From TrEMBL:
The chain crosses the membrane at residues 260-280. Keywords: Membrane, Transmembrane, Transmembrane helix. Gene3D superfamilies: 2.60.40.680. It comes from Candidatus Komeilibacteria bacterium RIFOXYC1_FULL_37_11. This is Cohesin domain-containing protein.
Amino acid sequence: MFKIVIITSSLFIFFVCFGVSVQAADLFFYSESNTIKTGKFFELDVLFNSPDDMINALEGELYFPQNLLSVIDIRENNSIINFWLEKPVVSANKIKFSGIIPGGYQGQGNLFKVIFRADNSGKGQIAASDVRILLNDGYGTDVAVSIEPFDIDISEETVSPEDILVVDISDQYPPEPFTPIITKISDIGGDNYLLIFATQDKSSGIDYYQIKEGYSPFIDATSPYILRNQSLDKKIIIKAVDKSGNIRQVSIAPVYLNHWYENFVFFAIIVAVAGLLIVGRIRWKK
């Protein structure tokens, strides 16, 4: 049994899907060459194609020969996924990922890019497993998935400087603007308010997010985030930082005014009026 969040324009709907496979989608890989020299870096695009159907959610694991390759970086810039439930992160010889596409997506697109280094000579294969793709049909219907692995052949040759792929990591632009959402989702936070947020960076990719509630310091956070201040009476600041250190910062004004502040203003007005009446009466007696 598999639980996944399906997002419509303004409503979060949870479905428990039991895997009824229809239609077809492809998961495959692309690199300029599959013949590599030891010590060389190369980029591998993880691609997706659904020519006939709108897709709104997917998950899976990419695995690679750890004795031959090591992961240098993973980039989600230019990804068709704009809301990651689990961002691609390497663990041993696997990269696990899970995300959704609000509104759905049809056609071919890039999921993410992996930058590998060829460490040792030999032949191997990069492939994917446990891949699930769901239709944007309101039911989260499973799609039959075709997975095309990527064969690599690493030879131990002397690498000249011009043979090494130079990965341009220059990035002077902040992540894209985004609009955080405060909501309640019982399956995640019970009766607590959650903060939902996501953005993209088309150059170097998003590195991390931080959140500041009121006068508290910034802390690292991932979406969905259970707000510590459930009164919603303090300003919230969300900071998105890309892998080049550029920052996009957005804020949410207090949803509710602080009650003590309202009471303070009310009593201050009463005291001021009373003071004026007393002063006026004293002057009248004189």
